[in-house]
Sequence to fold (281 residues):
Amino acid sequence: MGHDHEGQRVSRRRLITGVSSLGLGSLLAACGQDAPAVTTSTGASVSPTATTSKDLTALFADANTCTLTATTTQGPYYFDADKIRSDIREDRKGMRLRLAVKVQDSETCKPLGNAVVEIWHCDAAGLYSGAESQSTGGGGRPGGTPPTGAPPTGAPTGESAANDLTPTDDKRYLRGAQVTNSKGIVEFTTIWPGWYRGRTVHIHAMVHFSNARVLTTQVMFDEALNTKVFTQSPYAAHTGRDTFNDGDTIYKDSMLLKVTEEDDGYLGAIVFSADSDKDGK
Fold:
């Protein structure tokens, strides 16, 4: 991904120099239709660019759909992590996963440039950064009960900041955001997610466009690959997995990541068809 100061903490609420209280929608507005770089208040430059190699093109062709992507709950552990970056691993150990997401409009099927894509997921032990004390890997959900006002597991999200978590620690691993390029693509480098009781293996994702949260969804993994990855360190130390794709309350076949082996890990691609004008189509 094309930006300077990889991994630097950048507050998206103060993103443009001289302007305060900026949200993600303001970032999109600042990017404009021609996708220029955005200079942050800390001097970092954020450009909506992505590598679009032939392997990605083939994967996206196989994964392409114009069906509106299923909306899910954002879960109890979403918050604005203030991390504009492509490599979200920090110190977390695990199987390398390069995740490529293509965002398109659900009605026109045209790529949606200048959208912000956020992802967040647990580590190999089932822990979420910013919520390590709550996400112990046990119980029906990490931490058991979501914050007051959060929707129950499986319920559609209201896509409102009212349900966002107030972090309880200063960790920010396995969380990050990127801006889609003119082809609607972002890429992240992360690790294969771990698991916790009551849920199958998944990555949370949120798409913001024109000052709105236009999609909140999740990405799932083929169980044969989950089994293969979890035999290796550090995943093998976390035993007793109780929920798989076929028993998960949120899982849908359309959420499955298209995965291929790559170097020392895996490359996964998925297409998100977002309701960019929020008219339900």
In short: The longest strand covers residues 96-105. The chain is about 10% helix and 20% strand. The chain has a mean pLDDT of 78.
